[in-house]
Large ribosomal subunit protein uL4
Amino acid sequence: MVEIAITNSDGKAGEKITLSDDIFGLEPRTDILHRMVRWQLAKRQVGSHSTLGRSDIARTGKKMYKQKGTGRARHAQASAPQFRGGGRAFGPVIRSHAHDLPKKFRALGLKHALSAKARDQQIVVVDAFALAEGKTKAFKQHIETLGFSNALVIDGAEVDANVKLAARAVHTVDVLPVQGINVYDILRRDVLVLTKAALDALEARFK
């Protein structure tokens, strides 16, 4: 059973709530988390690297010289890889680096990431995450009051407009709606901050 106190807007601990063992109480497996991070980063990779092969070189396709009688090696076009200015053999081509992972495995990976944060006591639950004005200074003061500086903040279906505006200049804090929660962002930040709306949405998602 995972118990955690809700952090009030003044940074003090409030009432305690119990987190679901099915989501936050698993024993984290590094192999599952590793596969999830590789899957996410592979999808991001652009894959636009390419070189010119011999068929892409703008040279004549005519045979360089006759096959026999010259005493020289047999060659065809000058665009062959062994010649200066020729195409590259087995060079990189434009492609997607993405690979598939089963939907159930992805759900399990997210649970293990959440459980890892819970085990390390790096989860903060707040009633709501909102600002009266969309100023970076106000945002920094708010997160300082709550007691963190490097975090992933997960809100409900919609992120507060002022928070979204103010957080853009703070590069150590990411703010996402609950639909955007992912393993890579959870693991790369020191603290995971969940609003009650996000917590309810997660529990409904994995019910």
Residues 51-91 form one domain. The chain has a mean pLDDT of 93.
